[in-house]
Amino acid sequence: MPLFISLLIILAVLSTKISSRLGLPLLIGxxxxxxxAGSDVLxxxxxxxxxxxxxxxxxxxxxxxxxxxxxxxxxxxxxxxxPALSLATLGVAVTALVLGLMIHWVFKFDFVYSLIISSxxxxxxxxxxxxxxxxxxxxxxxxxxxxxxSAANDPMAILLxxxxxxxxxxxxxxxxxxVLLLLWQFTGxxxxxxxxxxxxxxxxxxxxxxxxxxxxxxxxxxxxFAFGIADLAGANGIIAVFFMGYxxxxxxxxxxxxxxxxxxxxxxxxNILLFIMLGLLAFPTRFIHIWKEAxxxxxxxxxxxxxxxxxxxxxxxxxxxxERIFLMWGGVKGAVPxxxxxxxxxxxxxxxxxxxDTIFFAVFVSCLLQGTTLGRLSKLFRFTEKKxxxxxxxxxxxxxKTSDIEMFELHIDGESLCVDSTLAELNLGNxxxxxxxxxxxxxxxxxxxxxVKGGDILYVLAPSDQIxxxxxxxxxxRQEEPG
Length: 483
Prior knowledge:
Blueprint: H1 2-22, H2 26-37, H3 50-71, H4 74-107, H5 111-120, H6 126-135, H7 140-152, H8 154-168, H9 175-207, H10 212-232, H11 237-249, H12 256-281, H13 291-313, H14 321-329, H15 335-340, H16 342-346, H17 354-380, E1 405-411, H18 423-426, E2 433-439, E3 442-444, E4 457-463, H19 467-474
Antiparallel strand pairs: 1-4, 2-3, 2-4
Helix pairs in contact: 1-2, 2-12, 3-11, 3-12, 4-5, 4-7, 4-8, 4-13, 5-8, 6-7, 6-17, 8-9, 9-10, 9-11, 10-11, 10-12, 13-14, 13-17
């Protein structure tokens, strides 16, 4: 077993290189590895426990979604919060209703049965969307809209799925209580996420440990605590950890850089495990019985239900035609719909596996088509931002207390006014220090006469409230003379 797991992990990591060269979403490679190693192909590992998959996936998604919130900046969130939350609620409801009506009309399925299928696949998936937007330098406004929508739309999809399953089994409780529960899921999740953020800041400041690993372990505990307390209160834990991550990511606390790097490692591991596990759960030989229905459902979702949902949800907000088309195509499906597809089976409504197999196949096609082409569509519409080069060296400030001084990474554009100026000529002030420069992969120790070059990565030690000003000043671009 350890040898088998190690080979899967190594193959998954190596597949990231192949995926990037072919322009495929990373999750496609991970799912394919699981399918090939699973029961229907090489049969190296037999796995068909959908309920166990759900329990494991729920835990992995907690950390994946927390990291998504942690990376969202305050400025980008403020600009897209309203449309993103509109997509996460109204958008999901419209998608489920329109798609359910079309499934009922095309396949003559029972209407409630059709709504169960459409509700399961109505939400976009946070893990899938985060992986796509993270690997493509998409304009911040659009990337943030998709990220926040995907993190916040699970409660609506879950509620609709559960309600329609209850209707089908004649076990529906009061509709009024269902609506109140939905409201509490959102508001309670946000409230508890904020309270857990405040509590996390307090314990991080109280720890004062010289061992950076303690801060990493503490973060894991805080994330699980936020999810657990929200779940205990009947609120949505996914929303709680997303907003807790957002507030923490935009705050200053001890060992933040170290925690950020650790968080990136953890979520990379969990993404790999999640999608390999979902691949293992698939039985491709059963797809021959449902592929026509699945393709039809994907087509109706992509070209009718999702576009209508985006149009209605973003109607009050300032999005151009191309931006709306991009958001329509950004409804990538992933782990959550597959996990939700286990709910009917648990309720005795999917004995032949039709719903699960159909949803799995539809999700795979969505990932393959939308996930593969979303980055290319961004380039076509000129929504792609210049990708910052990764630094071969990381310089960080490890402080045991909260400090107003912060070390930040600044990328110098080739057209910036500061290019070819010495550090002394920039006159950044007595309270600002350029501690090091990374140039062409080499680490330099700068002096006053060191000239700044295009493509340099500067590590600057400065007061937190001056970071934006310094960044704007050093990366200001020369304006052309009129006439």
